[in-house]
Amino acid sequence: MDKLKNDSAPPGLPAIPATWFDRKGLVQIGLLALLLLAPLAAYLLGHVYYVNLGSRITLIAMAAVGLNLAIGYGGMVSFGHAAYFGLGGYVAGISAYHAFDYSPFLSWPIAIPGSDSMLVIWLATILLCGLLALAIGAISLRTTGVYFIMITLAFAQMVYYFANSWPSYGGEDGLPIYLRNTLPLVDTGRPLTFFLLCFAGLLLAMAITSRMMKSRFGAALTMARLNDTRLATAGISPYPVRLVAFVVSAMITGLAGALYADLNGFVSPTLLSWHMSGELMVIVILGGVGRLYGPLAGALLFVMMETLLGGLTEYWKLFLGLVLLFVVLFAKHGLMGWLAGREPHV
Amino acid sequence: MCVVTLTLFLEQLINGLQLGTMLFLMASGLTLVFGVMGLINLAHGSFYMVGAYVTALVTVSTGSFLLGLTAGVLAAAGVGALVELIVIRRLYHRPHLDQVLATFALILIFSEGTRWLFGSSPLWLSPPQMLTGFVTLPGGARYPLYRLVIIAVGILVAVGLYLLISRTRLGMRIRAGESDREMIGALGVNIARLYTLIFAMGAALAGLAGAMVGALQSVQVGMGEPVLILAFVVIVIGGIGSIKGALCGAILVGVVDTMGRVFLPAFFRQFMSPAEAAGVGSALAAMLVYILMAIILAFKPKGLFAAHG
Amino acid sequence: MSETVLSLNDLHKRFGALQATRGVSLDLQEGEIHALIGPNGAGKSTLIGQIAGSLAPDQGSVHLAGREITRLSVAQRARLGLGRSFQVSSLAEPLSVMRNVMIGVQALQGHSFRFWKPVYRDESLLAPAREALERMQLLHRADTPVSELSHGERRQVEVACALALKPRALLLDEPMAGLGPEGTARLTELLEALKLEVPILLIEHDMEAVFRLADRISVLVAGSIIAHGDSVTIRQDPQVREAYLGD
């Protein structure tokens, strides 16, 4: 099945998905259907808990889609994506906090009030996460390899300690969101509606990634990952290409974070911690790095392990560690590689 | 003007040096392992924890801190060697991403395993009786003797490492390994054994740091993680693979971090209300070493003493 | 008559105590193959680095088509029309031949920050890439991943990648290295035809190929050009015979 080739294609076509109904296509449809239908069924059966669990999986998957763009497609091993996930969460939290008690977020030099509109929050998240990633990326991408890993980790840690010691928004205790932020026309407070919103967000993030990777920009980013000397020799500087991908990646993860805060009704420095960065990486790897559906598969596996093993033992992360060790040492292509076969062109 | 007494300054400077020496113990192992084997090891903080736990347990059951410390360091070295044999040596030729994830998995296993065995509440470990006293500093302040001993141990280790690397056969092999991995094979050195030895040595230093600091703070699961990340900052600043860089970086980070936490809030009190100053000052102080790192990297992307190219 | 496309003017480069390049000047004219030869350690790689932009000279200048490029980056020089191939093949192994060549076309058009239109439907990328492959007689391999190509085919892809840039000058670093007699003959033929379109600065070990292809030869020894001329002159130069040909 791997060797399947599109014979009718004119010369030079990169591999196009031949059909939705080969093994890979079926696995992908199956994963999407599982994620969509299980919470719907839970809703019909009256188990709100599982609807929210579906939202949780969806948002973690979306955050991992962002990270996968950096690690899997861009070859930039960011160990600090919790910074964007948490920043998105804090944008939602802080904005709701000011909207709730009608206090201004800023009164000088310009007045910025809080807002409980998700549209405003999303826009602010995209903007702020983009700016943060631009600053961090601009410095970190001057380095490569282990330096890049450690520096992204260190910068995320900086944001974490800042949130921890800045007293205005709860410090290490975190900040509650008393009322879920709102959208026009829909009631975001209903678990199913909120789940569908998250699901749409995940689909959008995946569609953007997929489309982008097929574009000229994607071609340049792929070359930057595989062989940046070739890219430079061809006349394209790798640095700005990587930086833009890094920023887009952070925006996607940040948006997932904003929704995640709304799901939990709470935001705390935990979202910014390096464990969060590590777990997002784990999800990307468990699912299959550089695969469009990898983050989805990884998030399903991760949250299911957390729920099932976590129900059996308090020390479930011990087993997560063992599974992860096994996957890294012996099953490099992750769940998607196992289910759907290897990607013909990496 | 901000009133800083000389005594306070001296005291904080020594505190910074003490943090620096401890960071050096962590960072030297990390940087050696990276320099010689090209491996990034997140689980280094776990050896710190192992050293502290074994020291605490043995000290409590035998009543001797020295015995506990010896056991702690040996245990860390042993666990390090074992981890190298079972997991780490499969990772030398893998991409850094795999190394990060596998060693992240090791953290999960060590932390949750320890929690399972010893519970979540911290163990108590106090410094030995003979080191609990105070020393009078110039200016009259009393400073805990034990902290000075930590600094002394750190200096001893730094000198020992220097002599080991510059004067001994093992050191020659380590240096050869850093500059040219093919060459040590050609010298007829058993590379596998050399790697295990270096890894265990790094683990022992981390265990030593954990044991000594465990007696100062508390011994608990996850105690190695904040230190690990600071140690990363240290070796990024110093230049990955360079022991000299690790030493300079450690002292720089230790002193800047300690001084920032004390003097930044004091500085902001000059023109802010005390509550505001405490908030802004402590938030900025928490970020200070990372800002330092960013500035250094902006000028020297490979750190102050880049060992590789 | 013929116009200077690429010129090096008094380049110097020092690494610590080692003076790797000592005042090298040479030029490349329209329509010619200018070969640069020299024994191992003569400083060829350092010189190539300074031409291509991965190394900055300590002193001296590089001009491409009348424009100074001494301080420009590798990518900027490529966009101005400096195509190069590497001694060790530097292609993206998992990607198809086409994808490797297309990236040069994309760079030439200067639109790498387009996020929407899929490249595999973009005729403005595909057509010039096909043309470059056709030029190197490799169109039939367009869909093959580079990892499945023979050594000789990779060499041809390298040149095709450089051609995709519509270069003003080509810098080929030992393109014959590792090729069998058949591959060498084939590539020699292709380069001979190519030089009329784009002049080539050829760094090469294979003396037979050099003497056959080159219009002019410069000999680099210990960081300096010790001799310069056509193949007959070089063959007979006593200094060259002593320093290089080992007589």
TrEMBL record, chain A:
Keywords: Cell membrane, Membrane, Transmembrane, Transmembrane helix. The keyword Lipid biosynthesis does not apply. One of its GO terms (molecular function) is branched-chain amino acid transmembrane transporter activity. One of its GO terms (cellular component) is plasma membrane. Pfam families: BPD_transp_2 (PF02653). It is found in: Cell inner membrane. It is a multi-pass membrane protein. The chain crosses the membrane at residues 29-51, 57-75, 120-139, 146-163, 192-209, 239-260, 280-303, 315-340. Signal peptide: none annotated. The keyword Transmembrane applies. This is Branched-chain amino acid ABC transporter permease. It comes from Halomonas heilongjiangensis.
TrEMBL record, chain C:
SUPFAM superfamilies: P-loop containing nucleoside triphosphate hydrolases. GO terms for molecular function: ATP binding; ATP hydrolysis activity. Keywords: ATP-binding, Nucleotide-binding, Transport. The keyword Nucleotide-binding applies. InterPro entries: AAA+_ATPase, ABC_AA/LPS_Transport, ABC_transporter-like_ATP-bd, BCA_ABC_TP_C, P-loop_NTPase. Residues 6-247 form the ABC transporter domain. The keyword Transport applies. Coiled coil: none annotated. One of its GO terms (cellular component) is plasma membrane. It holds the Pfam family BCA_ABC_TP_C. This is ABC transporter ATP-binding protein. It comes from Halomonas heilongjiangensis.
